[in-house]
Every structure is written in C-alpha cells, then in structure tokens.
Amino acid sequence: MAGRLQGRREGQETGPNRDANTLLSSPAWLRVNGLKASKLTLPQVLAQIGFRQREDYVPSLGRSVCSQYAGGLFTRVGKNGSVYNVSTPAPSELCERLDQKARLFRYRLAWLTSGSRQIFGVIQERSAALVLDFGAASAGQFRLGQSSVCMVIKEQVSQIAWFNLIRPGPVAELWQGVAECTSPTNIDAAVAWVWGLCPAKSSPSYTANALLAATGDPKLEAVYLFVVGDCKVDTARLLKTRRMKNAQPIHCVSFNARREETIKRLKELSHHTAGRFHAFAEMSLFEDVSHDSGEGDHGIASRQMSLMPIGGLPPGEVVREDVFLVWREMQDALTSRAEIQELLQELNATVTPAGRVIHEDKEIYRTAILPLEHLKPVFRHGCTAGVSGTRR
Q1: pLDDT per residue over 126-146, tens digit each?
Q2: Separation of alpha carbons 372 and 387, rounded Å
C-alpha cells in the first residue's frame, strides 16, 4: 500500500493536470494560474494585440485623417468608445491560450468538486490536526465517516508536512502525542488507526477539550474539526470559557448534518477562531464490491473503504466560494475568447487588401505599410505614421 501511495503522489506531481490539483486556496491558486497572472485579461489582451488609433492633420491632403493601416491591421471600437488598430496574427494565438486556460479552470473545478475536496474542502496549511467528532452517528454513518476521513488522509494529508489525529473522549485520544511528519508509513498507520476506532459516547465538552489539545501543539498551523451528524451544544461558547494555548484557526467541516442549527453553530466556531467552514450532505451511497477481497476482516475493511458518498451542499447552503471564484475566472476566459473571436470574424469580413487604407469618407488611398512593432512606438508617443499617397 505504501508503494501505491507513493506512486499516486508522484503521479500527482507529474500528471497532465498537476497545475489544477494543488492544495491552495482558490485566491492563491488564481494568483499563480489566473488570467491576470498570464496576462490574459481582456485589457491585457488588447494591450498585446493593438494600439490606440490617432487622428492627425495630413498636409498633402489638407485635412485630418484617421487611417486604418493594412498589412494585418484593422480597426476595433472598444466598449468605452476608444478606437484601436489591431494586429491579426496575435488574436488566433491568444484564442488558443484562452482555450487552454478555460480547460485548466474546468479541471480545477472538477478537482474541487470531487473526492475528498467535495467532502472536506481543501487543506491549505503545511501542518494540521484533524479532530474527529463522530457524535451519536449510527453504525452506517460511523463507517461512512471513517471512510471519508481515510480518503482525506490519503488524498490531502499525504501532501502536507506534519499532521496528527485526535478523537474526543473523556480523555482525548491522540494518534500520536505530537504531530508527526508525513511519510507513506505514517499515512498507512493513520489510516489503520482511523479504521480501528469504535463508536463511543460523545460530548461537546469532550470536543472542546480535544480542540484545546490540538491547539497546544506548536508544530500545527491549523486544526480541522470533522463533525459527523448534528451537535446539540454550542462548542464555540465552551471554547470562549477556556484559554487556548495558541491561536491556530479551527476550520469546521460538517458531514451529513440534518439541522440548520448545527451548521449555524459550526460557522460561529469557525468565525470565532478565524477559520473556514465547509459542509457536505450525503445524497446517496454506492458500494464498489469489486474491492471486496472476500473473507476475513481484511475483506470487510476493503468493503467499508469502498463506500463512497455522492452528495453536495446541505439545505440552506450556497455555492462554495472557492468553487465560485474559479468558475467566474473560467467565464471571464470564455468571454475574452469570444471577444477575440469576434475580432477575427470582423477581420475576415472587412479587411482591405494590403497597401490600402479606408478613410471616414470612404475614399481609398495608398498607404505606407509599416510593421506593427514600428507603429506601436510611434503612436505611443503621440506622433503619426506617414501616410503617403496619391489619390487612386
């Protein structure tokens, strides 16, 4: 199993979608992979492919002329009324880059809304403790909670540096006395420890004590409270009466809560400790019997681990912010691509032959054809390019 885990982690680092599968918040991920970072926002794109069109007095004509240069240039009027000359080779390349970005955002959305990210959100810190509060869950919900926690450990905890697991009780039950470094051996041991847990009495006071124990470890950057089902007492109120040793945020994860009051209390706890909140509600279950090895305890464990929740947000919850931010960036990429595609279509319909220019009065003059790299600095400094020309 350690070998399979190591192979999967290496595959995540070298796979085609590795940029989409990083443990970062959506704002941090977009700062690295977003349109602005790649200079693909619409204003940035226009700055790359065009320059502001100028009107100036042409002595040989005795009038002001606003010219459209040929040789791969055509006029575009922006939404604010600005008129640009646009270079035609670049838009097709930018369309492809925007297509690639839209695909990357689509991969990121699929990753955020599947597997352990759908259930647990994204672990964003390099070290964290998971406090596992199974409450008064039924036997089936308890096993489902175990399976989900193991998925989080294998898919996300395996990629951070330090971690620990804590089970609330009369005396908090810790996987290790202090946070341990992440390694294939420790990940396997942590998964086995979770599967070895049995249903036990739960109390908000036990949960508060477990959270205090987790925040007492200086190695940890954050604590994740995983709550199965509903809780009856305000844990945030209990924590306010007790002194936390460190100031780590407590991120609350609600798993299959049925009551909105539970969601409200966990949100308050997250807010009180500057943490985040994530909720998941089971819709249906499916069991992959192909993973059942048959007889013995090992076969039972394999069957339990193959239970996969298929669900989403509980009643009253809105779309996750991290999902919305990436979705909005994808929409911006598609919108920008449509704008550029429209430019190309207009070019195909209206561009004049090389060496000609259209004036506002529809009269046609021959012009000096200048490469775009020569025209940009000319117009940047407010000068005009020479328009030679005798009337046809």
Answers
A1: 999 999 999 888 888 899 999
A2: 15
pLDDT at 241: 54
CB atoms within 10 A of CB 135: 23
* Tokens (6 digits) for 211: 């959270």
Low-confidence stretches of the chain (pLDDT beneath 50)? 1-16, 53, 68-72, 285-286, 288-309, 351-392
User: In CATH, which superfamily holds the domain spanning 125-319?
Assistant: von Willebrand factor, type A domain (3.40.50.410)
Q: DSSP letters of 331-390?
A: HHHHHHHHHHHHHHHHHHHHPPPTTEEE-TT--EEE-----HHHHHHHHHTT--------
CB 12 within 8 A of CB 195: no
* Closest listed residue to residue 191, CA positions, set 228, 236, 158, 216: 158
Q: Which residues pair with 74 in a beta bridge?
A: 86
Residues of the chain with CATH 3.40.50.410: 125-319
pLDDT number for residue 36: 94
Q: Are 287 and 325 in contact (CB under 8 A)?
A: no
pLDDT digits 0-9 by tens, 275-320: 999 998 875 544 544 444 444 444 444 444 444 445 566 655 667 8
Report how far residue 251's alpha carbon sits from residue 271's, in angstroms, rounded to the nearest whole number.
9
The pLDDT assigned to 366 comes to 30
What's the sign of the alpha-carbon dihedral 236, 149, 24, 45? negative
pLDDT (0 to 100) of residue 367: 31
Q: Which of 379, 211, 229, 384 is nearest to 314 (CA)?
A: 229
Handedness of CA 290, 295, 301, 304 (dihedral sign): positive
b/e per residue, 172-189, with b = 16+ CB within 10 A? Answer: bbbbbeebbebebebbbe
